[in-house]
Design a protein that fits this description.
Elements lengths: L9 E6 L11 E6 H19 L2 E3 L2 E7 L3 E13 L2 E9 L3 E9 L1 E13 L2 E27 L2 E21 L3 H39 L4 E3 L4 E4 L7 E3 L2 E6 L3 E3 L27 E6 H13 L4 E4 L18 H6 L4 E8 L4 E5 L2 E16 L2 E21 L2 E18 L6 H8 L8 E3 L1 H4 L4
Parallel strand pairs: 1-16
Antiparallel strand pairs: 2-14, 2-16, 3-5, 4-5, 5-8, 6-7, 7-9, 8-9, 9-10, 11-12, 12-15, 13-14, 17-18, 18-20, 19-20, 20-21, 21-22, 22-23
Bound molecules: 2-acetamido-2-deoxy-beta-D-glucopyranose (6 copies).
Length: about 450
Amino acid sequence: MGTPLLPLLVVLQLFTAPSPAAASAHISAVISQSGLDFAKDLLVSHAAETLTPLSVPDIEKSASIPLVGTVRMTASGIVLHGLAVTNSTVAVGDTGVVVAATLARANLTMEWSYSYNAWVVTITDRGNASIQVEGMEVGVSMGMKNQNGSLKLSVMECGCYMKELDITLNGGASWFYQVFIDAFSNHIRTSVENAITKKIMEGALKLDSFLGNLPKKIDLDSVAAMNVTFVNDPIFKRSSVEFDIDGLFIPSDETAVPRGMLLGDIKFALPLGSSSKMLWISLDEDVFNSVSALYFKAGLLQRMVDKIPDQFLLNTASWRFLVPQLYRKYPDDSMLLNISATSPPSVRISVGRIDATVDLDVTVNVLDFGKIVPVACMSVSVAVSGAAAVSGNNLGGRVDLDYFSFTLKWSKVGKLHTVLVQASSCPSSRGSPSEMHISSLLTQK
Ligand SMILES: *[C@@H]1O[C@H](CO)[C@@H](O)[C@H](O)[C@H]1NC(C)=O
Ligand SMILES: *[C@@H]1O[C@H](CO)[C@@H](O)[C@H](O)[C@H]1NC(C)=O
Ligand SMILES: *[C@@H]1O[C@H](CO)[C@@H](O)[C@H](O)[C@H]1NC(C)=O
Ligand SMILES: *[C@@H]1O[C@H](CO)[C@@H](O)[C@H](O)[C@H]1NC(C)=O
Ligand SMILES: *[C@@H]1O[C@H](CO)[C@@H](O)[C@H](O)[C@H]1NC(C)=O
Ligand SMILES: *[C@@H]1O[C@H](CO)[C@@H](O)[C@H](O)[C@H]1NC(C)=O
């Protein structure tokens, strides 16, 4: 779709228990009044642009004029120009939203002609006219339902009203002026009102087909896709609309071309004040757990580490006093760590915080004549807690290390000193909280 995704001021909220009304919704997005105003402004200005020039069907009439006889008149080439929106409002009702706009300074141009028979000759005349439209208002109320996991938009009411038409005829006989106005002004008014209504209905139909064609899943990469199927009908509350989506990660098509994540295209920004918060997004922990399960199943949560900030630690020589057997068997060999999750990392969300635990196997390998030889394995359990935050253009978060434990699973080189474990598997976590991004957990092979 060509619609640009716009910078939105987004607030992220995390919740634990799925709300009872929305059993299968794991993400809900609430568009606040300022978000609705933002969307309305876009929609209205786009509509006003596409509405003009608007051609109105020709009108033909006959009238019987004293002293003149039967006159056939036509108003043709009626075109509406220069619609400008003065102000517009959007309000949320029980079943949908109502958008109303006051328009200013619309004008119409048209051609007129008439003919009548006087004795044996036919008298014709033609010219043009311009019409100023004063006080024009347009209103449309739209409802939205969930149909098969997509949003179905319907126009419940659409109306257009013009207060006054100020018609200026160029040319023509003087008697014709009042005749024309009597015969045509109501017709022109109705025709223009109908043409505008029709155009708005067409626009709504386009919007509906845009909504209907929204994808039901968005591929994150070749492993995971987010199920963005709408669940439940949108909930229209006082000055906000809530949309619920399934939100869980599902396996993506193997052939999928990786695209930005659902939120990847939306610019996150720190909310400037309560009035500017346009969109509230709530996620529950199942969203995180579903993606962690997929990555785990795909075998992506493991990594061979051969570079660390303190590179000298990845050489057996550094350990010759602490783990003498290691150095004796493999003198001056490079070491590699195979860090691999033993179960999907699990995420729990409670008020104001996220807790995550990861169970890992860390296998210590040495590079012995080009061959990787496992020498010991530890099982490591890490629990972190933190809060997600929207900062700049990133969805990030601060993560604090809560709990760290390890046990030696097996070893071919005797007992390992604890320093090895702390230094090598969690180099930056000694005491100080470390910044972390969710994506860094999801390291690719
Ligand atoms: C009618 O609107 C057009 C477009 O805005 C403008 O150029 C033109 O001057 C207007 N005519 C009158 C008579 O106001
Ligand atoms: C636009 O403003 C006028 C005057 O301030 C007001 O009467 C009218 O109701 C407003 N229209 C809308 C749609 O807000
Ligand atoms: C309307 O008619 C006047 C003269 O009758 C002419 O000068 C003017 O160009 C015409 N305008 C249009 C838009 O045809
Ligand atoms: C809902 O989707 C199913 C399968 O995709 C389709 O067969 C059915 O016609 C759809 N129903 C409506 C009302 O669109
Ligand atoms: C996506 O979510 C909808 C609604 O919860 C569900 O009916 C559908 O089966 C899900 N799709 C997949 C592929 O899991
Ligand atoms: C890393 O360890 C895991 C399990 O401990 C094992 O399945 C995987 O094959 C190892 N990776 C490499 C590259 O040795």
